[in-house]
Design brief:
heterodimer; A: about 325 residues; alpha/beta; Glutathione S-transferase Yfyf (Class Pi), Chain A, domain 2; Rossmann fold; four-stranded parallel β-sheet; 15 helices; 8 strands; about 10% strand; globular; B: about 180 residues; mainly alpha; Fumarate Reductase Iron-sulfur Protein, Chain B, domain 2; about 55% helix; about 0% strand
Chain lengths: ~325, ~180
């Protein structure tokens, strides 16, 4: 059994509890032992780095310092947490002056972190790198037959320090395929959900979300599958706001990849946090319980120009 | 002023790791063209860089450009000159706050968030978002109520994060870091 330090992060404590619950269950099936970092603190998200640099690094480094001595890797399911942990470790290693200032700060709390001691990894990367697709498929008890899923990665899972193509990632699609789902390629899979923009300028935030939802709706997906609590929150909780703002009627459930993995592994949907989503995924579960006899084949729409690539519709707001 | 003591706005911006790359900007505009929130910005990233080079400190720091950066890192990975553009946007945020060019409705979100961390050691963005919304967008918050209700009924809402046990040592760490300060 491989042991990993586990950094859930603040989102997974409450608003993304479904991600935490489903990840822990899936990890158990895969034989991963998750050791939660004792008394971990917030990573500061994107906010602390906007205000004060050294405290921002020290805040993140406290978590790395608290990783038990016998563990050399930490897994974070939240993309912002993952990136902050990774960035802090890398920058401390690259800039010794920064490392000594961070450690001088940590010393005030009787802690120390040696850069490079702990490898920070995203939950999606851990699952896709430590297990082969065959390993994962071997755990599938109830294939997601006939369920049309599209992967949505968002930003920092793959950029600027991801393990997949930063523009056109493909690994989550492979995972969904291994689970037996019908994978639909979403060309905007690595576009931005807007992050905290809903708090700063709702109009801009809704434009960004509308762009994603409008293009996802055209694919006739049963759900979008994500690996980030910020993406999930924005696309799920604000979908109604987008609908009332643009007069649209989108109903696209936003699920975590660990939730759909858990379903395929035969875990009870309630235990996986189904029902916590704002845009109900009940229709996904119905299809899961009563899979279609034959996978329905959608007639392919003819492309206007047979040489043209499929392109997303432009932003409704247009350029400047 | 001699060459060595002259401290330009460009120097202030480039102190961060990799920041020196900004001097190599070729004004190609790949950054602005890649920016999902570019249309809402006063100046696109390319324009901001030209203004920085021109020493237009006040125009730059008073603009909304970096506050509208959503940290998606598209510009960073696409920049042919390998300029850490997103990190530069963060640096501009910090310089703007230091210079007192404050945008209450925007900056306060970051400050309240950080305040929550310093009090509890953890954050709860949704409770914070609600408080922030009520304060700065009271009229719109009426339209937000179905969302909030949905989050509450699904158990996804809290107004206060958990407090970590080591909050005192954490505060000591943050206090020390602030005291050391400095540019990185």
């Amino acid at each position: 059994m491989v042991r990993y330090a586990y950094y859930p992060g603040c989102s997974l404590e409450r608003n993304a509890a479904a991600y935490d619950e489903s990840f822990r269950l899936v990890a158990e099936v895969l034989g991963m032992e998750l050791v939660e970092i004792p008394d971990w603190n917030c990573c500061g998200a994107t906010e602390y780095f906007s205000l004060d640099l050294l405290p921002a690094y020290a805040l993140v480094a406290r978590n790395l310092a608290l990783v038990p001595e016998d563990l050399d890797q930490v897994v974070a399911p939240c993309s912002a947490c993952y990136y902050n942990l990774l960035k802090t470790d890398k920058n401390m290693a690259a800039y010794p002056k920064l490392a000594s200032a961070v450690n001088e700060s940590l010393a005030a709390g009787k802690l120390h972190y040696t850069p490079g001691r702990v490898r920070s990894r995203h939950a999606l990367d851990v699952i896709l790198e430590d297990f082969s697709l065959e390993d994962l498929a071997a755990h599938v008890e109830k294939p997601l037959r006939g369920i049309r899923l599209a992967a949505y990665y968002g930003c920092v899972t793959v950029r600027p320090m991801g393990h997949d193509d930063p523009e056109y990632p493909i690994r989550m699609e492979r995972l969904l395929k291994a689970l037996g789902a019908t994978v639909v390629e979403f060309s905007l899979r690595a576009n931005c959900c807007g992050g905290h923009m809903t708090q700063l300028d709702a109009e801009t935030a809704y434009e960004m979300l509308h762009y994603l939802l409008r293009n996802a709706a055209k694919l006739d997906v049963d759900a979008l599958v994500t690996a980030c609590p910020m993406c999930q929150l924005n696309l799920d909780a604000y979908q109604g706001q987008v609908n009332s703002h643009f007069g649209t009627d989108f109903h696209i459930p936003i699920l975590y990849f660990t939730q759909v993995m858990g379903l395929a592994f035969g875990i009870d949907p309630d235990a996986l946090g189904f029902g916590q989503e704002i845009v109900s995924a009940e229709r996904v579960l119905e299809k899961f319980r009563n899979p279609p006899e034959e996978e329905e084949k959608k007639p392919r729409r003819k492309r206007r120009d047979k040489d043209a690539l499929p392109m997303p519709e432009p932003l409704s707001g247009g350029g400047r | 002023m001699t060459e060595e003591t002259q401290h330009t706005f460009l120097d202030e911006v480039t102190t961060i790791p990799g920041g020196e790359r900004l001097r190599t900007c070729i004004q190609c505009g790949t950054c602005g063209g890649s920016c999902p929130s570019g249309p809402a910005m006063d100046y696109t990233p390319r324009e901001i860089f030209a203004l920085i080079m021109a020493g237009e400190r006040e125009r730059v720091l008073k603009s909304n450009t970096f506050w509208f950066c959503v940290s998606c890192y598209y510009c960073t990975i696409r920049c042919p000159q390998e300029i850490p553009i997103t990190d530069i946007m963060y640096q501009l945020k910090r310089l703007a706050i230091k210079a007192g060019y404050y945008r209450a409705s925007i900056t306060n979100f970051s400050e309240t968030f950080v305040g929550q961390i310093e009090t509890y050691g953890r954050s709860f963005e949704l409770g914070l978002a609600t408080a922030h919304y009520l304060r700065y967008h009271p009229i719109e918050s009426v339209r937000m109520s179905p969302l909030m209700l949905g989050m509450v009924t699904r158990g996804r809402m809290a107004f206060r994060p958990k407090r970590i046990r080591g909050i005192r040592p954490l505060r000591a760490i943050l206090r020390k870091a602030k005291e050391l300060g400095g540019e990185w």
